[in-house]
TrEMBL record:
Binds 1 zinc ion per subunit. GO terms for molecular function: GTP binding; GTPase activity; metal ion binding; rRNA binding. This is Small ribosomal subunit biogenesis GTPase RsgA. The gene is rsgA. Monomer. Associates with 30S ribosomal subunit, binds 16S rRNA. The lineage of its organism: Bacteria, Pseudomonadati, Pseudomonadota, Betaproteobacteria, Burkholderiales. Zn(2+) binds at C284, C289, H291, C297. Its cofactor is Zn(2+).
Length: 330
């Protein structure tokens, strides 16, 4: 069982890179590899032959994310040093006051899974929207477990309305049931995800693992075996891991979480993600209007007449207060 799973990972890798890329052209001792799992301090990387290495970095070279292309220097027994991190196409990351943590790099998209039970967090949705906007990675929302809402059109309508409002209708949103309608779910997602590298985000219990197992059967079992084989997987649920499926399907699973920080953003970045508020805010009487109690505030007027979304306004004010708080600490 362990052997066949590892073999599957090797086979899956063949389509992506060809063997002649195995050796690093600049230095023959180095190998090119793709980071496929992050355990925080150490990582797993896959070379062009599909071999999995346990890799370590020193200093800045410790800051790698799943999806990073790296050069590694083997140090024996399937272990290697990270020598170089190639320039990233994009990077989605979270950051708290003290540390920043990378979700994943070189992505084609992010998939956020929501559901009614456990209840989805609009705050997490807002943070994910902002992080994706900043990283310039397209976001798709999957609202899972619609079977629970069968016969409750009112709640479903309210959810649709809220998601549309918060995303300004700009984020493709699909309503699915992974367990009750697996075939429809698969038919919907295959074309969207084929030949793409997708980071899957979601609170715990939304159905992330169920979805990954539907699209890549045995993905999670295979992961555990690889982790165990390399003795790396003591905490299999807390690491970030890339899974390889058919037709170039790459899914990155990250631990479920309730929220994440965005301390790496500047105020301009934040305004960029809330361009509706920024544009309206440009019409306020005072250039430095905080849109709270000032007279002739275009944002407040927009909220009152319904052209701006109160939910987005609240998210913006919350994130802004957080940034100001973080800045005042440095
Ligand atoms: N009713 C219903 N339940 C679902 C659906 N999809 C998943 N579930 C259930 O929701 C529960 C949580 O699913 P998981 O796939 O383990 O959730 P997860 O997001 O991976 O959660 P973590 O592993 O904690 O991050 C399981 O009991 C699933 O069977 C669905 O479409 N409808
Ligand atoms: Zn204002």
């Amino acid at each position: 069982m362990a052997d066949s799973s590892l073999h599957k990972v090797r086979l899956a890798s063949k389509g992506k890179q060809t063997a002649q890329h195995a050796k690093n052209v600049g230095s023959p001792d180095l190998l090119n590899a793709l980071v496929v799992a992050s355990y925080g301090r150490h990582f797993l990387a896959r070379d062009a032959e599909g071999e999995i290495w346990q890799v370590y970095g020193k200093g800045k070279r410790r800051d790698v994310a799943v999806g990073d292309e790296i050069s590694i220097l083997p140090s024996g027994d399937k272990q290697a040093w990270i020598e170089e991190i190639q320039t990233r196409r994009n990077l989605v990351y979270r950051s708290d006051a003290l540390k920043s943590k990378m979700f994943a790099a070189n992505l084609d998209g992010v998939l956020l899974i929501l559901a009614i039970s456990p209840p989805y967090s609009t705050e997490l949705l807002g943070r994910t929207l902002t992080a994706c906007k900043h990283a310039d990675v397209p976001l798709t929302i999957l609202f899972n477990k619609v079977d629970i809402l069968e016969g409750d059109q009112e709640t479903l309508d309210a959810v649709e309305q809220e998601l549309f409002e918060i995303t300004l209708g700009e984020v493709p949103t699909h309503y699915i049931s992974v367990t009750e309608h697996p075939q429809e779910t698969e038919a919907l997602l295959r074309p969207l995800l084929t030949d793409k590298r997708t980071l899957i985000l979601g609170q715990s219990g939304m159905g992330k693992s169920t979805l990954i197992n539907l699209l890549i059967p045995d993905a999670l079992a295979a992961t555990n075996e690889i982790s165990m084989a390399l003795n790396a997987g003591k905490h299999t649920t807390t690491h970030t891991q890339m899974h390889f499926g058919d037709a170039g399907l790459e899914l990155i699973d990250s631990p479920g979480f309730q929220a994440f920080g965005l301390h790496h953003l500047t105020e301009a970045d934040l305004l960029n993600a809330f361009s509706d508020l920024r544009d309206e805010g440009n019409k306020c009487r005072f250039a430095n209007c905080q849109h709270k109690r000032e007279p002739d505030c275009a944002v407040k007027n927009g909220l009152e007449d319904g052209t701006l979304s109160p939910a987005r306004y609240e998210l913006y004010q919350m994130l802004k207060a957080e940034l100001e708080e973080a800045q005042s600490q440095y």
